[in-house]
Amino acid sequence: MSVLQRVVKPTTRKGKKVLIRREPQIIEGPKRALFFRGRKCTEKVRQLLKDFYNLKKPDAITLSKKNDITIFENVTPVETFCKKYETALFMMGSHSKKRPDNLVVGRMFNYSLLDMFELYLENFESLKDFDSSKVLLGVKPCLIFNGPKWEETEELKQLKSLFIDFFHREEVSSIRLQGLEHALSFTVTDDEKILLRSYKIHMKKSGCRTPRVELEEIGPRVDFTLRRSKLPSEDLMKEACKKPKELKVTKKKNISKDGLGTTHGRIHIGKQQIDKLQTRKMKGLKKSSEERKKEKVAVKRTLSESNVNNVKRIKSL
Amino acid sequence: MVVLNEILEKIEKGTQNVASITVNKHLELDLDLGTLLGVDLNILDKNSLDNDYLRNLTRDNVQLLFNKLWELPTDRVEEAIVVELPSPLFKLPRIKPVPKPKALTKWQQFAKEKGIQKKKKAKLTWDDQLKKWVPRFGFKKAKAEMDKNWVLEVPANAPFEDQFEKKITVKAERVAKNELQRLRNIAKSKDIKIPRFGILNPEKSTSKDLQTAITVAKSSTASVGKFQQKLPNEKEARGIATITPGVSRKRKLPPVSGDEKNTNLNILDSILHKRPKLDIEQAVSRRHNLTEAQKDNPEKRIRKGKGPGKGKMSSKPSKSKKPASGKGQRKGKGGGGGGRKRR
What keywords tag this UniProt record (chain B) (predicted)? Predict the structure, then answer.
C-alpha cells in the first residue's frame, strides 16, 4: 500500500516521508531489535539484555520500564511495541517462580509474530566480567554453529535461523578483511544445552597470505536451555522468505566464458533471402513501361479476386 | 652444505606455516561466506566440553572460514583490503512482504490504453492581463488569481447572483469530485465493493437510478433498513444485492411454527381455485385498440357484433373464425340450454 493509496492523506511533507520509509521495500536495511523487560527481572537477566543491546547497538532500542506482558499468552502488546518502534526483532527478559531467569527471543514479519523461543539462563557471565578489550561498534561477526543437533530438530533449526537473523547485522557485498574481529559461537550439546560464546579474533602471522586465527573470549558467556517455543507455520515462513523478482538473478543466454576468461557470445541470424537481393542495376534489365502496366493490372486483379472471395466467405457465414 | 641446510630449514618452516592454518575435520563445514556463517555438524567431545575446548573448536572453524574468505577476489578501497562477498546462501525472512506493484488509477489505465503520455508543463505561465509570469498552481497562484479577477461580469439572466461565491462553490465541487475519485481508486485497488452512488446528475438519471438510490438510502441505517417504512407496492431495486447491506436476493423462508400449516393451505387454495388475473389497465387499452380497429373496418364490426367477448376481455385476435354450426352456445330465444322442444 503506497502512501497515496491511503484514505487519510498525510498532512505534512515530513509525515509523508515517514510513511514512505515504512512501506515495504525491495532491499531492506538491517533488522532492528527491541530489548525490554517483563513483569519482574533479575539482575542477571537485566545484565544480559544490556550486553546484547551493546552487541547489537546501532540497530537496537532498549526500554527501561517494566511491562506487564506474558508473551506466550498474549502477543499483541509486543506486536504493538514492535510496530511503534519499527523493530523486527525483540528480546524480553523476565523472572517468575515458575520460570526463573527467563529470556524470550523472537522476530516479527509484517508487524506480526513469526517465531519466538523461551530460554532459561543457566550460567551467565557478562561482558564486564571479562578483562579484555572489546570489539568495535557495528562490526559484522562471524557466526559459528557447533554440534550435529542444530540440524536435527525443527525447533533448533528455527532457533539457528533466529540467531543468525539476530546477530548477522546486514547483508553486505564486500567486507574489509582486517575488520573481521568478532566471532560468536553457538554450541548445542547432546542434552540440548545451548552454549553461547563470544570471542575477539586476533590475526597472527602464519607465513602465508591467510593469517592464523587466535581467539580471546570477551563475553557474554551464556548457557541456555530451551523452554517453550512458537514456530511459524510453513506458509508464513515461505511467504516471509520470498525474494523479490527484481533481486532474482536471471541467466543470460548465449554468453559463455572460456578458461582464459574471454567471453563468447552466440548470435542467431535468420535465413538470408537471396532471391530478393539487390544486384547491380543496369538499363538492360530495367522493365519497360508496358511490362510495368501489365504487372499493375495483375496485382489489381488478384486483389479484387481475393476481395470477392472474402465477401463470399462472409455471406456463407 | 650451509646453503643446503638453510634451504631445508626454509622448507620446514613453510610446511609449518601451512600447518598452522590447516584444520582437519571429519565432516566438512557448511560455509556461507555471504553471511560469514559456518555450521560444524561434527560430533562434539562429550567428556571435555569446557570453555577451552569450545574456544579451540570455534578457532578451528573460524580459521576454516577465513581460509575461504582470503581466497575471494580482493579490492583496495582507500588503503584497506576489501573482499567481495558472494550473495548469502542462508535464507532469512524479510521484515515486510515483497512490495506489490502500484495499482493504476482509472485515468492512468485509460491513458495507458489510449497511449496518452504525460506532457511536461512549465511551472510558470505568462499572463497577458497581469503582464507577468504566474505559477500554474501552488504558491502565489491564488494571489495572482485574485489580482486578475478583482471584478467579475454579471450575466443578464441572473443579476443578483454573487459571482464570487459561485466561483468558490464551483471550485469546492471540483475538489470534492477529485476526492471522490481518489477514494474510488483506493477502493478499486484494494478490491473493496462500495455502494453505487445515488443520483449524481438529476438531469441524466432515470427512474431506475432513483429506485436504486432509494433502496441504498433506506438500507443505510444502523439497522440496515430493517425498520424503514414501505410504501404500498414499493419495489426494491434489482441487481444491487451485492453492494447494499441487508438486501438479499434469496427467498426468505418463514420461520417454522404453527403458521406453517396455514401458509401451505393458502398456497394450495390459491392453486386449486386459480382465477385469471384481471389487469384493468391492460384490459382497457386492449378494448380501446379493438374499437379503433373496428372503426377502421366496419365490415368486421357487423360480423363481430354477435361474436364472443362482448364486454369481456378476449385474448383471441379480432380476425377469428366464425363458429361452426351446431357448436357453441346459441344466443336465441330459449332460456334453457340444448334443443329441447317447447310444447
Answer: Nucleus, Ribosome biogenesis
Contacts of A175 in chain B (CB under 8 A): 36, 82-83, 85
**Closest CA of chain A from B185, distance in Å:** 8
Could you tell me if residue B327 is inside a domain?
A: no
B54, A187: Cβ pair inside 8 Å?
yes
Partners of A89 in the β-ladder: A33, A107
Closest Cα in chain B, distance from residue A239 (Å): 7
Number of structural domains chain B divides into: 3
Cβ–Cβ < 8 Å for A127, A54:
yes
For B160-190, letters b (16+ CB in 10 Å) and e give: eeeeeeeeeeeeeeeeeeeeeebeebbebbe
Indicate if B140 and B187 belong to the same structural domain: yes
As a dihedral over the C-alpha atoms of residue A171, residue A176, residue A182, residue A187, rounded to 10 degrees, the angle is 50
Per-residue pLDDT of chain A (317 residues; tens, 9 = 90+): 466 577 888 899 999 999 998 999 999 989 999 999 999 999 999 999 999 999 998 899 999 999 999 999 999 999 999 999 999 999 999 999 999 999 999 999 999 999 999 999 999 999 999 988 888 898 999 999 999 999 999 999 999 999 999 999 989 999 999 999 999 999 999 888 999 999 999 999 888 889 999 999 998 999 999 999 999 999 999 999 999 988 888 888 888 888 888 999 998 888 888 888 888 888 877 888 888 899 899 988 888 887 777 766 666 65
Residues B201 and B190 in one domain: no
Cell 521495500 -> residue: A25
CATH fold for the domain made of A31-230: Rossmann fold (3.40.50)
Contact B94 A241 (CB under 8 A): yes
Tell me how far apart the alpha carbons of residues A169 and A175 are, in angstroms, rounded to a whole number. 13
Neighbouring residues of B89: CB distance < 8 A, sequence distance ≥ 6: B32, B34, B35
Yes or no, beta carbons of A147 and B40 under 8 Å apart:
yes
The position carrying cell 517468575 is A96
- The range of the structural domain enclosing residue B184 comes to 133-152+161-194
Q: Is residue B96 part of a domain?
A: no
Q: Residues B187, B202: one domain? A: no
B70 to chain A, any CB pair closer than 8 A? The answer is: yes
Which chain B residue lies closest to A158 (C-alpha atoms)?
B92
Q: Would B274 be classed as within a structural domain?
A: no
